[in-house]
Please model this.
Amino acid sequence: MSEPSRRSLLRLGGRIAAAGVVGGLAAHGAWQSAAPAASSPRELLGRDLRVGYLPITDAAALLTAHDRGLWHDAGLPSAEPVLFRSWEALAQAFVVGEVDVVHLLMPLALQLRLQNDTPLRVIGWGHTNGSALVTLPSITETSHLAGTKVAVPYWWSIHSVLTQQLLTSAGLTPIIGRPPGPREVQLVVMPPAEMVAALAAEQIAGYAVADPFNAMAEVQGVGRVHRLLGDVWRDHACCAVTVRQDLIDEHPDAVHAIADGLVGAQAWLNGNREEGAARLTDGGYLPQPPPAIQRAISRPADAGAVHPHWHGERLGFSAFPHSSYTEQLVGLMSQTVVDGDRSFLDGLSPSAAHSQLVDDRFIRAALSRAGLPIEPRTEEVAP
Model:
């Protein structure tokens, strides 16, 4: 492991250890009551809800719930969401209690919960699809990435997991920490905000990340979407809406309100994509150019998709955190190269991983209150 990566992990581990005082996991049981209507502005939590996010369209539902006052209407007013520039910074702020609810990379949430015993729970998905592998315009086949460098936003990210699936299916070997050989691709971690400039300067041959950074490369003419990750894993969840266990234990009605706001925001975004994209920019939540946000939220069909009937171009808004997804993810993570400790995957039961990480009671109840079904799901991964 490189020294900067080691220092980064030590810093994050230290903050996670400091957050251990939050408390242990509560028993998983069915929640019987709905979140009550609040009679005073801050009844449910006693203060404003604090939201943390990265400036990507994966955060659209959380940002929209705040922007449209959906949490306030449920008795849980929210402070202005706090923007973070890297996943490490967001995770650090979350585990030490600086923010209450975040969207976390699902593999990162698994690592924090199972490797570091961080008392957190995924309560739902914020979205599906919305990510891509972007390359220099000259690269038209995955095999053309041989001998190059490709950036991902975090080792434990769906972007790293699925990029490595794409590389190995093309006969290439992903490697870390040294220059690549003729049939190898060097993977590096890079904050999403730096990726477009790095590609434009040809410091990297490609990157895999969430929109709107993919749309930005297209709008600026510095890169092309080589493969939508929704065309690799059908309707996959990149980020999951996550809260700390103490919030569930001490303020379960507030978590119900969070779930209600999330479900309401997703339903509104599904029917108001253009307006939603405009609010993300006009409201100051996302700093990228409006054309990139609009393209990300309402991306046209991908004529070159391997599985066009999957509609991997469509940013979806589906809240229920299916166990089949978590179980498939654990299997794929076991095949993924990372710069760090991966021992938590040894002998890990995929179903046990889901039950330790995910608490679906709140989203299940919110969907029921909204009269929305939980759609059946089958995992399809085909790089």
